[in-house]
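Example record used in the benchmark description.
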Amino acid sequence: MTDREGSRWRRGRTALAAFVVVTALAAGGVWFSQASERASAVDAAPKTSAVQDVKSDGQPTAGLPGVRDCGIGEPEIKPRVITLTCADAGMVATAITWDRYDSEEAEGKGVVQVEKTAAGVGTDAGYRATFRLYGAKEVDGARAFTGLEVTYDGSTPLGDTTEMYNLA
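Model output (structure tokens):
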């Protein structure tokens, strides 16, 4: 190996090392610059009623069935928030006001909040909807609704005008 070949080899190694360092710094800079974006995404994410500490309106229950958020916990009468996709909480029914709530069915209106990752779009979105609870029965010693029908008033997150959810 001549001096020229050795010099070329050292220059190649130096260039490669410089490339690796610059790439690592650029990747780290992008990661750190998105830290506040990642933190704000967590803050903006829909939350379950347990996290938001949103409780029922305090009306006497008179044996009315409730809703078990994601099928766990004590049934909540007239919940204002119901998690629709329990695996990631990417879709949550919020701001629910109940027009009718009895021992067999309940009907109300509210908004389905969808995180951008659940909707497959670039921004979080909200969709006006009507909610119908049904299928009241004994679940783990308490009366609870087992089904939820969501009917969208206009545009929809998944393309269906009506969606059914199992609450048991």
